[in-house]
Specification:
This protein is α/β, with parallel strands linked by helices. The chain is built from 14 helices and twelve strands. Strand 1 and strand 2 form a beta hairpin. The longest helix is centred in the last third of the chain and has 20 residues.
């Protein structure tokens, strides 16, 4: 399983990264659109504009996904392969980069759209990075703590005195862990933190080097269970509703490419709902986009199943449509919580960080 797309570095580095991105960001791997002309029906009836030569000219849209191509991005691959983006007049190119690189590049307009969660967006906006969160992809916060079920760790209080593996004291996993411990009246001083900068905490847990570890609900716990070891997973959704990863764009891009963004959001959500209803179509789309995934179909299917479960909003009825709606109350709560951790450099409001108009309906 590839590293999760939502790894981020220290929040205090974001302002510097933004400045660097404005001059030229780090290299990413472009994944060209597989459909370069209208080849399928869209929802909106939007059409591409003819060029001066009479041929169809598609509007370019660069979309930053996670660290490496993965089955977790199946909706984007499916919408592309079925021609949904092209039918909206879009020529979509995917790039892959870690979140810390992606956020400032979206803010500077080098990338039109990207995926990021509230623990990256809120600190970045508070430091002046001009981005907005537009549509929710993960209704549940995917960063979790997990352990072997045999460990007896079933709740946050059970972490007291235990060794916990974590990539480092930064990013979404560190925010999540502090919230989880705090819910049981604990602090990081009540546990032993073992850092794995190479993201090897899952392997360390499997080998018994630590009692618990941080990870992503659709990654490390899935891998553990595929080895035949049942996992105990601790989430924070009922404790501190941190906003999960969703689509972000720079404010200038929103102004200049609103129609394109609207089409992209609409058709991506269409593909998400199709995959939620029939996961196999998502698996096949991911394998078509990333052929090496075919070597571990069962593993990829398990990762996709966990991903689909994480898309559903907190408290949503089973099978409810995925609308991408932005939970403003959760964003309010998250801003207040991140303030307690010293991650909000300058005062902001929820309206400074989100633009819910892209999923507000007709």
């Amino acid at each position: 399983m590839p590293h999760s797309p939502f790894r981020i570095v220290a929040v205090l580095a974001l302002a510097a990264l933004f400045a660097l991105a404005a001059c030229g960001g780090t290299a990413t791997t472009p994944v060209p659109s597989t459909c370069v002309a209208p080849c399928g029906p869209g929802d909106s009836g939007a059409t591409a504009l003819p060029s001066s030569g009479g041929s169809v000219a598609l509007a370019p849209l660069t979309v930053g996904l996670g660290y490496i191509p993965s089955v977790q991005f199946a909706p984007f691959y499916l919408a592309d392969q079925k021609g949904y983006y092209a039918a909206e007049g879009l020529d979509v190119t995917f790039q892959n980069a870690i979140d810390a690189d992606l956020v400032p590049k979206v803010g500077s307009g080098q990338v039109d759209l990207g995926l990021s969660d509230g623990t990256s967006v809120i600190p970045a906006v508070s430091q002046g990075v001009p981005i907005r969160y537009l549509a929710t992809i993960y209704g549940k916060f995917p960063s979790v703590a997990f352990a072997k079920a045999s460990s007896g760790i079933e709740a946050a209080a059970d972490l007291k005195g235990r060794k916990i593996g974590i990539p480092g004291k930064y990013g979404s996993s560190w925010v999540m862990l502090q919230a989880l411990l705090g819910s049981a009246g604990l602090t990081p001083a009540d546990v032993t933190i073992v850092e794995y900068p190479d993201f090897g905490q899952g392997a360390a847990l499997a080998q018994g080097a630590v009692d618990a570890a941080t990870g992503f609900v659709n990654n490390e716990p899935v891998q553990l269970e595929l080895t035949g070891t049942k996992a105990s997973v601790l989430t924070i959704d009922a404790i501190t509703p941190l906003p999960g990863p969703g689509l972000i764009a720079g404010t200038q891009t929103i102004e200049t490419k609103r129609a394109a963004i609207e089409g992209f959001v609409r058709t991506t959500l269409k593909a998400m709902n199709e995959i939620a209803a029939t996961p196999s179509v998502g698996l096949e789309a991911a394998i078509a986009a990333v052929p090496e995934l075919a070597g571990a179909r069962d593993k990829q299917a398990a990762v996709l199943a966990a991903t689909i479960a994480a898309w559903a909003p907190r408290g949503a009825a089973a099978g409810a449509p995925l609308t991408g709606a932005v939970d403003e109350a959760a964003w309010n709560a998250s801003i207040e919580y991140l303030k307690t951790l010293g991650l909000v450099a300058n005062a902001i409001t929820t309206s400074d960080a989100i633009d819910p108009s892209f999923t507000a309906g007709p």
